[in-house]
Amino acid sequence: MATIDLTELTRNEVRSLIGYERGERARDYFELGKLDRGVESIRVTAPANLRTLTPSFVQGFLGNSILSLGLEAFRNHYLFDGFSALQIQSIETGIDRVLMKRSFETTAA
Prior knowledge:
Strand order of the largest sheet: 1-3-5
Order of helices and strands: EHEHHEEHHEH
Distance between the termini: 56 Å
Strand content: 5-15%
Number of strands: 5
Number of helices: 6
Radius of gyration: 15 Å
């Protein structure tokens, strides 16, 4: 099992992980694309001082994994450790947003 310690991002100085772009950079930093193909499961651990984790960060960080693995395989592949109930709720909201189908219809005038 691979472990991703988000303390590597916060260095115990930053208390918030926010924003889609920051999530994408974290995805690249931890090479999640390779890990998704190369290991059986990934344990993601929260920094002890983490106060805020936004759904948009989750979307950037885990969105491609959710879409490529599918929801059930994603849930079996990623394990979240040390997150508060509110942070787990943000993770779930981010997952829901990744999976949300959006369609916009335009009409010609």
